[in-house]
Amino acid sequence: MASSIENNNEKLTLKSSDGEEFLVEKHVALQSTLLQNMLDSDCSSADVIPLPKIDARTLALVLGYCKKHADASSSKQGELNSFDSEFLKDMDMGALFNLVLAANFMEIKGLLDIAAQKIADTIKDKPHQEVREIFHVENDYTPEEEAAVREENRWAFEGFP
Amino acid sequence: MAIVNEPPDDVLIDILSRVPAKSILRFKSVSKHCMSADSWKELVVVARNHDFTGYHHHPCTSLDGVFYWLSSNAYPYGHTKIDAVNTVEGWFERRSLPASVCSHLQTNLCLLNDSLALVAPLYDNWLDTQFDVWLMDEYGVQECWTKKYTIGPILGSHRPFGFQPNNEVLMTGCDNGMIVSYNHGIGDIKVYKQLCNLPEVGFLRQVFQYSENLVSVKRRLD
């Protein structure tokens, strides 16, 4: 039981938060450190592995990424890079953020990196009011305090409302 | 366009750490609480079957989320072991030094080109010292230390405490308050006399690469 990892054709079943089941080849699942640790610690691959924090749409995206990267040993790094940027292209903020949460939970470092970077690139040129909306942050500044922070870093606000 | 769930602090920090400084400063006006998101976590590591009583612990060096330090339980520096705490996986381990490395006051752990390096005096001669530099290939295997090269002989009593980016070894000099750098490639010794106003207490133990960071550390101090 302990070392069933050698068999690459084995499959395991992942279950999303909304109850959809995904049949995944083991070598694809191993892209996730979380799943790898579960398999290493004698978790039976016959069991269905529930992922209560990840919905089916996000899980499908995550597994698409994992499959590409798991099969990529023979393909070129450049090809992977263009896959990565194409993969995230046109993705809205909500989907991106679900991806970050999923990658964080499943410990898929490469995916976490590119998705977090994509969000960072998106927000970096936005005015702070919009960033507040994106992250659902309530404004807890008094007008005086906010003015003081703006004054303190005035150069950073050049060209922003 | 908005994010549905509340972002956990560590994910938020990960995203914000990728944003340029100018944007970060602007985002300080998003929220008092949110942008002071101090992400210090308490890490509980259980060290089973290890006795810490009577151990003297040296300052630590960190690499890839693992903190390493030397600890010895015989006065002054005998029976030295290498302790390691993995802050990502949360384990503690104690390992022996490579078989031919002696535990000595001058033995030290430092970072060399993103590897953990062990610098140990070759033989105990206070007038004319040589040091072996060992590099760690992979933690956890007893034979993972490789002897890289030997420094010296250098006249006088020195204690290596770190490497410069150009592979120069920094050592304390014979006089108090003196730092010596030794370039292995050309055998060149530079003396930085009174490089800074060194405190008179104890030895120089470590050298750190300093880089600025915008994450504040104040919450734990409240």
TrEMBL record, chain A:
SKP1 component POZ domain boundaries: 11-70
Domain SKP1 component dimerisation per the UniProt entry, residue ranges: 109-156
A family per Pfam: Skp1_POZ
CDD domains: BTB_POZ_SKP1
GO terms under biological process: jasmonic acid mediated signaling pathway; protein ubiquitination; ubiquitin-dependent protein catabolic process
InterPro entries named among the record's database cross-references: SKP1 (IPR016897), SKP1-like (IPR001232), SKP1-like_dim_sf (IPR036296), SKP1/BTB/POZ_sf (IPR011333), Skp1_comp_dimer (IPR016072), Skp1_comp_POZ (IPR016073)
Residues annotated as transmembrane: none
Signal peptide start and end residues: none
SMART domains: Skp1
Domain of life: Eukaryota
Record pathway: Protein modification; protein ubiquitination
Keywords annotated in UniProt: Ubl conjugation pathway
Subunit structure: Part of a SCF (SKP1-cullin-F-box) protein ligase complex.
Known function: Involved in ubiquitination and subsequent proteasomal degradation of target proteins. Together with CUL1, RBX1 and a F-box protein, it forms a SCF E3 ubiquitin ligase complex. The functional specificity of this complex depends on the type of F-box protein. In the SCF complex, it serves as an adapter that links the F-box protein to CUL1.
Family note: Belongs to the SKP1 family.
Descriptive protein name: SKP1-like protein
UniProtKB/TrEMBL annotation, chain B:
Organism whose genome encodes this protein: Rhododendron griersonianum
SUPFAM superfamilies named among the record's database cross-references: F-box domain
Protein name in UniProt: F-box domain-containing protein
Residue ranges constituting the F-box domain according to the UniProt record: 8-36
Transmembrane segments: none
InterPro entries noted in UniProt: F-box-like_dom_sf (IPR036047), F-box_dom (IPR001810), SCF_F-box_component (IPR050796)
Pfam families attached to this UniProt entry: F-box (PF00646)
